[in-house]
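Hi there, hope your week has been kind to you so far. For a while now I've been wondering how a particular protein folds. I'm sending you its amino acid sequence along with the backbone structure tokens. Could you read through the record and tell me how the tokens relate to the sequence? Take your time with it, there's no hurry, and the full record follows here.
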Amino acid sequence: MERCVCRTFRPADRPGSRVASRYRRRVAEPPRLRTDPIAEATRQWEAHGWGDAALGMSVVTSVVRAQQLFSARIDHALEPFGITFARYEILALLSFTRTGALPIGKVGERLQVHGTSVTSAVERLERQGLVQRRRHPDDGRAVLIDITAAGRQVVADATPVLNRTVFETIELSNAQQSQLYDTLRLLRRQAGDFEE
């Protein structure tokens, strides 16, 4: 089965302009497997004497696979805007601030991303005209990242697409989503991801 996808000019192609021309292209859906390969891997783990680790292996592998599925949906949704999810997160974070600016170190901290990755993403956003870097007025060593009008427009245009095609279409009930979120949050907290 194929689905039709609308694509727009990327902000990089027309800095500061509103999303304009649209065209359609076909994207093939990946084939569905007849059996669950993770269930088969679990069976093999148990058959090879690794029963104590089988459940943990299946949990980890399932989380990694779910992340791959979500990443593919996100990439597909953001492709028309010429940005990755990491770059979208930076733009969204900046758009939520009172001034539209944050120190680069704070961006990495809030998004739980290494400084090098933030710097690389910011450089690409800057080349696209979506952010600007400047020295912090109170700390000459710190660098502030400012979202531009074009960056705000990308967030305004991309967020409804992400909501509609990714965040509102998870194949679980609201109760199941809440339970999964709570379970993963507990796992993250116990792994030291944050304190409470």
User: Anything to note?
Assistant: The helical segments are 37-47, 51-78, 85-96, 104-111, 115-127, 149-167, 174-190.
